[in-house]
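Annex B. Sample input.
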Amino acid sequence: MSRIGKQPIPVPSGVDVAVEGAVVRVKGAHGELSLDYHPNMSVEVDGDAKEVRVVRPDDSRQNRALHGLTRSLINNMVAGVTEPFVKQLDIHGVGYQAIIEGNVLNLHVGFANTIRLPIPAGITCEVNQQNRIKVQGCDKQMVGQFAANIRKVRPPEPYKGKGIRYVDEFVRRKQGKALVGADG
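Annex B, continued. Sample output.
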């Protein structure tokens, strides 16, 4: 059996999990999420033990892969409605800044034009001191994708270190060209 797939998903208090056909709905304090899972898998909710189990029909290669995937996706949904997922990005560079106007994130990162990124529904963004962006939401995939889209606007470059990077990301710096033949 799959080591991940066979583990039950504990459901904390305040979270409701419902299965309707091939759709799992998870509702909690921070939002509501739904997942259309593969029809080969079956999801069972045990109300007494407060846990969810994913069961596969056989040991075929595809079903083994789907078993762990489905369990991980449902676990992330339960975790997201309990405590929102957070990604933080830093902006490095002279004059680089981020400003939120309404539902749009405006990035001034060295281009002639301002880059405007609409903030998706279900995601909240905060900007601290114009150079730290905090992206949070209950859907792990949406939070990660929006943070990656922000970083993709101006990835960190290795010579001066300018650009947008994750808070815990390390950018290896390169030395640059040395002046050759300066002896005369």
